[in-house]
Write a structure and sequence with these properties.
The protein is of the alpha/beta class. About 40% of the residues lie in helices and about 20% in strands. Bound molecules: adenosine-5'-diphosphate and the ligand O=C(O)[C@@H](O)C(=O)COP(=O)(O)O. Its EC number is 2.7.1.217.
Length: about 425
């Protein structure tokens, strides 16, 4: 293993694994902290998918350290900590505390932070993160159910999460090229937030990070890393993608993301004739909505052209109302448990294809499905691949970050494997 990665949610892990495999690394994605003797096959990169974005910081640190120790013991020369391209976190963490702990583990004092993902319109300039044309704090991320992002200045945001110095390496330094950038990074103590607005910026930054033991960022920063191993003769040239054969079987669409993109995708799917059932956390706790009813609905639509869609996606006012009654964490967990239970019941009924929107939601669903390792297949939309669970009775999954994907994501994804 050359690169060991830890991702703080499942869709983030598949996003990163897609990037690494498209850039020529044999990449295996593991769900949860792997066993010390886990079989990583001949993987060049192992991506450990945690569900640590919104759990208490001490638990996120413990899980990340446990994963990192195994990756290092199994040969990873470089560690990558993957978080969201919209830097999803709270002032309590978990990005800063995990970076601190990983640096301590490695005995290092410096790292970088760069969530930019230009292909998905996340850019970083003067330390401010932009989503499309607006600062992060004016984007729909300001209303995220679990990690509302209300400050676009990542030097400030990360500064509130760590006691280490947080500085800025500006775009001008990136534009000076790999050598000068490496010197600028070396001159920074602590964690350097690095500007990037194009893929070329990320390539330059990646090349300057060849010797940095811990790299942190979104998935796009990882694009430049495989070339560093290749330049050292450790990795062959990029191979053609292996053919992808989706297992036969029935499918289901599940959406627990409340992002603006997912809400558009839910509306688009309905407009294209997908049968859809809304899942409501208040109705669940009051016993007005049950898993049995949802399963009946799904069964009634077994002959439709598209799988049915179960969605809890709701606008910010509706989410706020549910959270005021149930609590922020509990409202989310009720929905996650409900969708996970449906997925588990469907798997027992022979369903093999699960298309899921939302990072936390995907984590809950994949845990319930019992998947422990997945291989990366072709890209559906930037940052969203098909994945195949490993072992007998393979399942075919699409785990979509809430914010990613075109409006017709659900029907398009299904069309690719129909
Ligand atoms: N109607 C709702 N009310 C309150 N919380 C909800 C509702 N629907 C979904 N949630 C919760 O919001 C969170 C969305 O997070 P996630 O699945 O990671 O989506 P995203 O990828 O958009 O961040 C989950 O915990 C989910 O259970
Ligand atoms: O970097 C990203 O934006 C994604 O890979 C990601 O982390 C997904 O998180 P969710 O938006 O919570 O699905």
């Amino acid at each position: 293993m050359l690169l060991g990665a830890i991702a703080d949610d499942l869709t983030g892990a598949t996003d990163l694994a897609l990037t690494l495999s498209r850039n020529g690394m044999k990449t295996l994605q593991v769900v949860g902290v792997p066993a010390p003797d886990a079989d990583f096959g001949n993987a060049d990169a192992v991506v450990v998918a945690l569900k640590s974005r919104t759990i208490p910081a001490a638990e996120a640190v413990a899980q990340s350290l446990a994963a990192a120790r195994i990756l290092v013991e199994r040969g990873a020369a470089q560690l990558y900590f993957k978080y969201c391209s919209t830097f999803d976190s709270t002032d309590r963490g978990n990005i800063g505390p995990v970076i601190d702990a990983l640096l301590d583990l490695l005995g290092e004092s410096r790292s970088v932070a760069c969530p930019a993902f230009p292909e998905n319109a996340r850019t970083l300039y003067k330390g401010h993160l932009f989503v499309g044309d607006v600062p992060l704090s004016e984007s729909p991320m300001k209303d995220h159910p679990l990690t509302p992002m209300r400050d676009s200045n990542l030097v400030r945001v990360l500064g509130r999460q760590t006691a280490r110095p947080v500085g800025l390496v500006p775009l001008e330094a990136v534009h000076q090229g790999v050598g000068p950038l490496r010197e600028a990074l070396a001159a920074q103590g602590g964690i350097a937030v690095v500007d990037a607005i194009t893929d070329e910026d990320l390539r330059v930054i990646g090349a300057a990070l060849a010797d940095m033991r811990l790299v942190t960022g979104g998935s796009a920063l990882a694009r430049g890393l495989p070339q560093n191993f290749r330049a050292r003769g450790l990795l062959p040239a990029v191979q053609a993608e292996a053919a992808f054969a989706a297992p036969k079987g029935a499918g289901i669409f599940l959406a627990g993301s409340c992002s603006a993109a997912t809400r558009r995708q839910v509306a688009d799917a309905q407009a294209r004739g997908v049968a859809a059932l809304k899942v409501d956390p208040l109705a669940i706790v009051e016993g007005r909505q049950t898993a049995a009813q949802a399963l009946d609905f799904i069964a009634a639509h077994a002959g439709d052209a598209y799988p049915p869609l179960l969605y809890s996606s709701a606008d910010p006012d509706e989410v706020r109302a549910a959270q005021e009654r149930l609590g922020q964490g509990e409202a989310g967990e009720i929905v996650e448990r409900f969708l996970a239970a449906i997925a588990q019941a469907l798997r027992q009924r022979g369903y093999r294809r699960f298309i899921v929107a939302g990072g936390e939601t995907s984590g809950a669903v994949v845990q319930a499905l019992g998947a422990t390792t997945v291989a990366i297949g072709p890209e559906i939309d930037p940052g969203v691949p098909w994945v195949l669970t490993q072992g007998p009775d393979a399942l075919c999954l699409a785990l979509k970050s809430g914010n990613f994907g075109s409006d017709d994501f659900f029907t398009k994804a299904w069309g690719q494997i129909r």
